[in-house]
Amino acid sequence: MHGDFVQYDVGLSSHSFQKLFSMKILNPYLIFNGKTEEAFQFYKSVFGGEFTLLMRMKDVQGMPVPDSEKEKIMHVALPLSNGQVLMGSDSTESSGSAVMGTNCFISIHVEGEAEGEVLFKKLVAGGKSNCDFGKQFWGSWHGNLIDKYGTCWMVNYDPQP
Question: How far is it, in rounded angstroms, from Cα 79 to Cα 63?
């Protein structure tokens, strides 16, 4: 272990991993400094379609939100094609301002908890976990990390059909 970085060894080669698991889809997740709604209205005008979800911070149950952040976007989803979804949210005071390198996550949706756990451990090797992969308050499994190259990733599993 070096500083904030934790080394994981999952014991699977890339070839073995591909035989055991298959990712459902890879989705970009963009973070903005209070401009998410504006940006996503633009993306909607570019790609077409309708938002499948647009949730504000004030709509989240059980999460205290400062008055200054209540209208910020907690989560927005714009379907693209072939199951791909462009997603995003606003940065918050507690998360800090989005800056190049932390304003974009590659969001991977897997088919099961085991696949998510293995993929998370492989991606975090030599990097830093921001939120370990596990069951979250909204009912899905989630983890996020910065890999050893500085790429930000989210690994997600939704057990709901």
Answer: 27
Pairing of strands 141-146, 128-135: antiparallel
Query: Are 34 and 52 within 8 A, CB to CB?
Result: no
Burial 78-111 (b: 16+ CB within 10 A, else e): bbeeeeebbbbbbbbeeeeebeeebbbbebbbbe
pTM of the predicted model, to two decimals? 0.63
Q: What number of other Cβ atoms are within 10 A of residue 18's Cβ?
A: 11
Q: What is the pLDDT of residues 17-37, one digit of tens each?
A: 566 667 678 788 988 889 999
Strand ranges (E), 38-84: 53-56, 73-79
Q: What is the DSSP letter of 127?
A: S
Contact between residue 104 and residue 31 where contact means Cβ atoms under 8 Å apart:
yes
Of the candidates 53, 57, 56, 60, the one whose C-alpha atom is nearest the C-alpha of residue 138 is: 60
